Amino acid sequence: MLPMQRMINQANDxxxxxxxxxxxxxxxxxxxxxxxxLPAVRWRPELEAEFxxxxxxxxxxxxxxxxxxxxxxxxLDSGAKRLDRLAVHLRQTESGHPFARFLCQRLEQxxxxxxxxxxxxxxxxxxxxxxxxxxxxxxxxxxxxxxxxLACFHRYQTHAEIPPDSPTISAxxxxxxxxxxxxxxxxxxxxxxxxxxxxLTANAAVRSEILYLKADATFSAADVAxxxxxxxxxxxxxxxxxxxxxxxxxxxxxxxxxxRLQEGLAVAAELxxxxxxxxxxxxxxxxxxxIQMAESGSDFRQIFRMLGxxxxxxxxxxxxxxxxxxxCPLDGAPFTKDLCYGAGxxxxxxxxxxxxxxxxxxxxxxxxxxxxxxxxxxxxxxxLRDGWLRTPRYxxxxxxxxxxxxxxxxxxxxxxx
Length: 417
Hints:
It is globular and about 65 Å long. The mean pLDDT is 90. By secondary structure, it is mostly helical. The chain contains 18 helices and 5 strands. Helix 2 (17-31) runs antiparallel to helix 5, helix 11 (259-272) crosses helix 15 and helix 15 (339-357) packs across helix 18. Strands 2-4-3 form a 3-stranded mixed beta sheet, with helices on one face. The chain is 57% helix and 4% strand. Strand 3 (204-207) and strand 4 (210-214) form a beta hairpin. One of its GO terms (molecular function) is metallopeptidase activity. Keywords: Hydrolase, Metalloprotease, Protease.
């Protein structure tokens, strides 16, 4: 008999249910460990040099070429079968435990991610992106308002004291500064928090609680402050809160569905703490405009030229254009993940305004407790009230001040109806 089946058969009291749920959650993590969307759609690095050498006159690759830097995970089919068995085990517990429902949702999300990965390079890939990340198409069920997003960033440009923004700091120097700042924020975890990487598409990213900086990138003082808040306080902080606050490791693992909350909270922190410099805001705006163009039929070269006309250097314009076509055919709909930053920002600011009107600790703690989708927040709040989840340790102190939150958020949102 399989070990998990034996556990379920012996589960004749509710005290054993949490152990079963933890075992199922751990099994989901193991099955999906290599099912990572963004690495799977990363392009081969030599495509950039070839495209720029041709001055952007030719597409970055021919439709018959394979642009991806790595193969798909080998266990997509076998993993799907194991997920089905885990779903059977979950139904057999008949626990009624609220986090059994959470695990059901994560199993559904894992199946969807598997199908999404298998759609790489086809038009279906973009359809999955629209369903999860959003679209600027007005009649789509997951439509977002690009004008509202751009207006929010414009209010920041108008009202915030935007910091200087000259990128003269090397990645090693930025690493030293961020390591010092984040060591103070995560004072109880004296360990390496920041590393350099030669394999990033973006200038920075958090993976497994470590902030990686692109080794050949340069940063401004505003960039360093923004990374401290966005990548450190939010992305690293929620990862550490999840590890320390729950026996379910799934709470540490981001999913495509959790992107809008995670990135929305991180960009909201950029604005509320006024760490986003002019280049950062222009980049947020350009990504929204580029997705609008791509969804209206513009191709890779047209968007690359548009970004160049906005003042982006050729290499940055290529990388930003690549972001919205990765995983998708060059002549089709785009990969709309970058809408999550703006759409998530508006959703987060609105949520914070509502919270500040009737502040409740467990509601605020919930958005910092781990990697969740907006739809999962009520379950997280319930877990905090019932003691199934521990109170998040890392929550930026100003967020606890409802008056500060209300006044700060009001700068960037239109008046409530």
